Predict the 3D structure of the following.
Amino acid sequence: MKTHKINMQRAIIYQDALLFKTPFSLRAAIEQGLFLLKIPETFNLEPGIKLCREFYLPATSSTRYRGFRPQTDIYFDREHFQTEHLLVDKTRWATRLPGAVVKMVLAMDALGQVILQAALRELGVAQALWASASGGAVTGQGTHWFAASHYRPERHLPGCAEHQDTGFVTLLYTRQSGLEAFIDGGWQPIEPEPGYFIVNFGACLELLSAQLPLSARAIKHRVRECPALPGQEDRFSFATFINPPASADLYEVQPLGELRRLISAEAFLRRFNERTWQDRHASFGILSEQTQGTPNE
Ligand SMILES: [Fe+2]
């Protein structure tokens, strides 16, 4: 496979503003579908890293970081892939995750919100439409997810299915190779950059902006098989996602600026799950008002 080094835009968040080197960089990042975000100096990643290393291990009484496998409302064993992961929505962060992880996840989620606002502004979506266009996600409502993934090297399977993220904005922390994105007609490795999150846009933002002069790309990505390497730990990653609530509708902004309804978020997610994972978790990532606080399987 022919690969080339992907040139990604770099940004920082300073005083609630998303700043790039040039005024055109955000536009380029939106068109490319991903960019690098400097992790703030004060940010403590350790709780997330510890959770990824331990969540799948048997429970012990001395730690809240282990023993997640039996918690089948938030733990998913992907039978066709190496990955096993936690997916926890915001309403359960405080009760299900260790306190230090919750603090980290809230900080990541807040960064995602700044990015979503900046993207909507750059796309030219009128601010009066932001709340309805995002199902409230832009102001902290909607569905906010945290995921922690572990790649089991003993499985000779792809790491993670090829997919587009479903929501608006994803922040990903990873420190090992394996991520690939579909760029210019081929799969290209996306190497982690120490000190940076990888940010990518999701299908809801792509749909929303498809008819606008600038439209966002929800980049297709996957994780290749990650073999056991001598002296190296298993691959892990963690991420936050900003999505509309399952009860919302997905929209497309028309060239004159008004919103056109496309499909319900729930129908969209069910179709995505069928196509992507092809396993028993048909309601993965769908948190309806009826299922909040109860298992969604
Ligand atoms: Fe993804």
